[in-house]
Amino acid sequence: MVVFEKQLIFDGGIGTTLLGKVQVDGFVDLLNLENPDLVSAMHSEFINAGSDVITTNSFCCLESLISNSGEVALAAAQIAREAAHGKLVAGSLGPGYNIPTHKDYEKTVTGLVDGGCDFLIVESVTDLKQAEIALEVINGALPVGVTFIEAPLQLPDFELQFTGINCGAEPSENELKKLSKITDLPLAFFPATGSGPQQMMPAAEWAEVTAYIALRYECYLIGGCCGASPEHIKKLIVEIN
Ligand SMILES: [Zn+2]
Question: Residue 207, SS3?
Answer without folding.
Answer: helix
